[in-house]
Write the structure tokens for this entry.
Amino acid sequence: MALRMKLRCLWIFGLCLAASKFSKVPSIKDPQFIQQCVALHNEFRGKVDWDHGLAKVAEAWAKQCRFEHNKCLKIPYQCYRDFAHIGENLWLGGLALFTPKYAITKWYNESQHFDFNNLSCSNICGHYTQVVWANSYKVGCAAASCANFGGATFAMFVCNYGPGGNFKNDLPYTQGPPCTMCSTEERCVNKLCPFNCSILLTERKDLKPTGKAPQQIVYNVLSLGFILLRAI
Ligand SMILES: *[C@@H]1O[C@H](CO)[C@@H](O)[C@H](O)[C@H]1NC(C)=O
Ligand SMILES: *[C@@H]1O[C@H](CO)[C@@H](O)[C@H](O)[C@H]1NC(C)=O
Ligand SMILES: *[C@@H]1O[C@H](CO)[C@@H](O)[C@H](O)[C@H]1NC(C)=O
């Protein structure tokens, strides 16, 4: 069975009041916030770099406080001209509970439901597969505080990935010992081929991608795995 990520589940473990209504969420220009988002992703996968444009897309959507995927992601290049397809992970939870580390780890922890051998998922795995999707090499995240959930203040956290992952029937990454796919000239650095993806991005833009092949359905754009976490 193919990976099932079209689950529209809203998991409510408890809707309690968030602690502080006026706590601030970090801005997308906050160096500490950027560092945390990037470092956390890179703890779980090969290197991604921050992309301010993706963070602006994430910020604009997070501020809407709507727990659903950004509509403009459905149309190639609509949200951001650098990427035809952008992936998106969402987290909504109590503001007092929110840290990038908590949310990104929560996404990554879906790996326990994912079976790499037959690409099956026993629960929700789409956040995890997007976090580790090898071809996604840029990330931009944003958080907003949202006061419209039953009076409680929640944090809405959005990460956008370029290019988007979660292509149907594709492996998130190729399994094997680190660096076995590096070119012969490349040395292995921190278990990675020291390949500069910014160069690839420039080249890709010159190549003008022709759009999506029929099988290239971006799951996270079409569907959602919702996680509503317990507020403190
Ligand atoms: C996938 O493989 C695992 C064993 O590796 C098995 O338990 C599971 O039922 C399989 N899932 C599907 C959907 O085939
Ligand atoms: C993720 O899983 C680890 C290991 O099972 C666990 O210690 C941690 O609390 C989990 N984190 C979150 C945010 O769920
Ligand atoms: C990657 O290439 C870009 C554009 O050429 C450059 O700005 C950037 O500093 C390079 N990054 C690394 C880590 O070499």
